[in-house]
Specification:
By secondary structure, the protein is an alpha+beta fold. Helix content is 41%, strand content 37%.
Length: 143
């Protein structure tokens, strides 16, 4: 009986710490995305890109195909959104955050840009990975 009680308590502790850890991970990911909204809305594209993995292996998949690398992705943003009128105000609507495995999540959602040059909306799926203790976007598919 004591053994069964011990196993039950151990299971509850492991389950609650796993859930707590997942909730902490999700809060950290949402905080990064909140910071991205703020940076983008100030036309701080470099600040927006701080949420991304600064690597040549970063992958961005959009209407122009696959872009590899942090620098190339930033250059594309600068070309596509050259002024504050083009970048506008960014709002994310998060529809799902799911754990892939330990240290990785995918986020599905919508983006909404309110702009003087015309509003823009779309959907995205991004993959966050914990790298050197920090959550970073390693892949982004937006349309």
């Amino acid at each position: 009986m004591k053994k069964l009680l011990f196993i039950s308590i151990a299971f509850l502790i492991i389950s609650s710490s796993s859930t707590s850890s997942e909730e902490q991970d999700k809060k950290a990911i949402l905080a990064i995305m909140d910071a991205q909204q703020i940076a983008w809305s100030k036309h701080d594209l470099e600040g927006f890109m701080q949420g991304y993995w600064k690597s040549d292996s970063l992958k961005f998949y959009g209407s122009n195909g696959v872009t590899l690398g942090w620098e190339k992705t930033l250059a594309n943003y600068k070309r596509g959104y050259p002024t504050p009128d083009h970048s506008g105000t960014l709002k994310f609507k998060i529809n799902d955050i799911s754990k892939i495995n330990e240290g990785a999540y995918f986020v599905m959602g919508e983006y909404h840009l309110t702009r003087k040059v015309g509003d823009a909306n779309g959907i995205f799926m991004i993959i966050f990975k914990k790298i050197n203790g920090e959550w970073k976007i390693i892949a982004d598919t937006s349309s």
